[in-house]
Design a protein that fits this description.
mainly alpha, Protein Binding, DinI Protein, Chain A, 6 helices, 2 strands, elongated
């Protein structure tokens, strides 16, 4: 009985090893592909431009608040308690308003980034699928989330970027 079990186990191990040996696997760095495709570069540039504008507005409001605090610190010792309390409340209200604006801008920028990159990621996944079919890959792993190490020959990121740009450029020329 033990010999039969050992034989079945050995055959099972050999067949799974043989099946695994025939498996073709590739890796792709989708984040790098996003950043290096033409559409990704354009999206990143637009997002940075939007962020810089919003950051400038936020910096101006923060500077105004800083000046308000400096003025308040100078006037506070000379003010009556009721007036001082009212001015402190006004400052606190402006501070809370600035925090709310900051949180809203962060959320807005995150939403815009998701909208800008979501379509590009879907297109990249299609390109990865096309390359996988063409090259007979059984699986393609995302380099930054599922792979600790892989031979550089398994990395198809450059091919994905080239094909994505070629397809995107070809579509742009037809319009």
């Amino acid at each position: 009985m033990n010999k039969l079990f050992a034989l079945v186990f050995a055959l099972g191990t050999l067949s799974s090893t043989a099946a695994f040996a025939d498996t073709k696997i590739a890796v792709v760095d989708l984040q790098r592909a996003l950043e290096e495709t033409e559409d990704g570069k354009k999206a990143k540039s637009k997002l940075k431009s939007d962020f810089d504008k919003k950051q400038k507005e936020l910096d101006e409001k923060q500077e105004d608040l800083k000046k308000m605090k400096e003025d308040l610190d100078k006037k506070l010792p000379l003010m009556k308690p009721e007036a001082a309390q009212a001015e402190q409340k006004k400052f606190q209200d402006r501070f809370v308003e600035l925090q709310q604006i900051y949180a809203r801008l962060q959320k807005d920028l995150a939403t815009r980034e998701q909208e800008a990159t979501g379509g590009i990621f879907r297109k990249l996944q299609n390109v990865v699928g096309q390359i996988s079919e063409k090259n007979g890959f059984d699986a393609v792993l995302e380099k930054n989330s599922a792979v600790v190490w892989a031979k550089s020959a398994l990395d198809i990121t450059n091919e994905v970027i080239r094909q994505y740009n070629a397809e995107a450029g070809g579509k742009g020329n037809k319009k």
